């Protein structure tokens, strides 16, 4: 693991090789929404798909190969930084899942995306649920990856994962994405994300602390949007890894039952980063779900 983290530090300073335009070299742009700024990237053309990042993650945490694969299916892929990360500014007051959902809605409006599909990973899946509840006419389909419900019935992180949250331990958090016996998948993920020039994969500590508070309130049922998820009528795909310690598989199974007619896809040998480990298979399933 130390070798992997050393590679992160070393490769982050190495200029990216010239390549055709794709997720690895797409420029970061800024959308101005009133006094707020949101940093984002866009690749591909076609029906838009908006990806919402998880706790402690930055825009660089999405592996380019995965985004390129989705874009190649005929989609415009948009990724962005949550509040207080990169070029996205932080507003005053308490950070909430609801507020980040409204940030998502504001970006979609600013970019004039017409009813995009929305994909949320981990905390990003909580934001995606809140967005779908609050702005049901602003999306077409919903994909929830390794996330948790907000109805007070969430399964909490296992002790080893819980101890890492909020520490800023990049090595530990990376280790939670893949089971211990999946070193090839882990190393492949690292190699992929480091194709970004100037890679920066972890959010500022103060922002992570604020995100932890927002996620905790969502999971214990304190955010009223979470109590409304069972009323969603949007077509939904839920995915998870059976060996996930950060947001155990019981969360995804519950969500698949809670949201009417939701589909559930699970991988027995995967964890929180299941859709990276099984990129080809899951991208195919997700592409089929999203359709043209």
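-> sequence recovered:
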């Amino acid at each position: 693991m130390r070798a992997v983290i050393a590679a992160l530090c070393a490769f982050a300073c190495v200029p990216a090789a010239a390549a055709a335009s794709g997720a690895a070299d797409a420029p970061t742009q800024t959308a101005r929404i009133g006094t707020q700024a949101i940093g984002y990237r866009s690749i591909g053309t076609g029906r838009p798909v908006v990806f919402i990042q998880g706790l402690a993650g930055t825009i660089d945490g999405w592996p380019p190969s995965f985004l390129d694969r989705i874009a190649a299916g005929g989609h415009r892929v948009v990724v962005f930084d949550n509040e207080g990360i990169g070029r996205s500014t932080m507003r005053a007051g308490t950070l909430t899942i609801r507020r980040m959902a409204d940030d998502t809605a504001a970006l979609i409006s600013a970019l004039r995306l017409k009813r995009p599909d929305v994909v949320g990973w981990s905390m990003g899946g909580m934001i995606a649920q809140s967005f779908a509840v609050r702005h049901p006419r602003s999306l077409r389909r919903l994909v929830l990856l390794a996330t948790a419900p907000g109805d007070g019935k969430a399964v909490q992180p296992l002790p080893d994962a819980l101890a890492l949250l909020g520490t800023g331990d990049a090595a530990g958090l990376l280790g939670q994405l893949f089971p211990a016996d999946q070193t090839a998948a882990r190393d492949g993920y690292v190699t992929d994300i480091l194709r970004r020039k100037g890679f920066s994969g972890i959010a500022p500590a103060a922002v992570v602390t604020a995100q932890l508070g927002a996620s905790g309130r969502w999971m214990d049922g304190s955010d009223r949007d979470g109590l409304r998820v069972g009323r969603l009528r949007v077509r939904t795909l839920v995915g998870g890894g059976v060996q996930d310690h950060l947001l155990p598989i019981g969360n995804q199974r519950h969500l698949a039952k809670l949201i009417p007619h939701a589909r559930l896809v699970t991988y027995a040998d995967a964890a929180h980063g299941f859709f990276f480990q099984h990129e080809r298979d899951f991208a195919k399933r997700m592409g089929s779900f999203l359709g043209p």
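The first strand starts at residue 29 and ends at 33.
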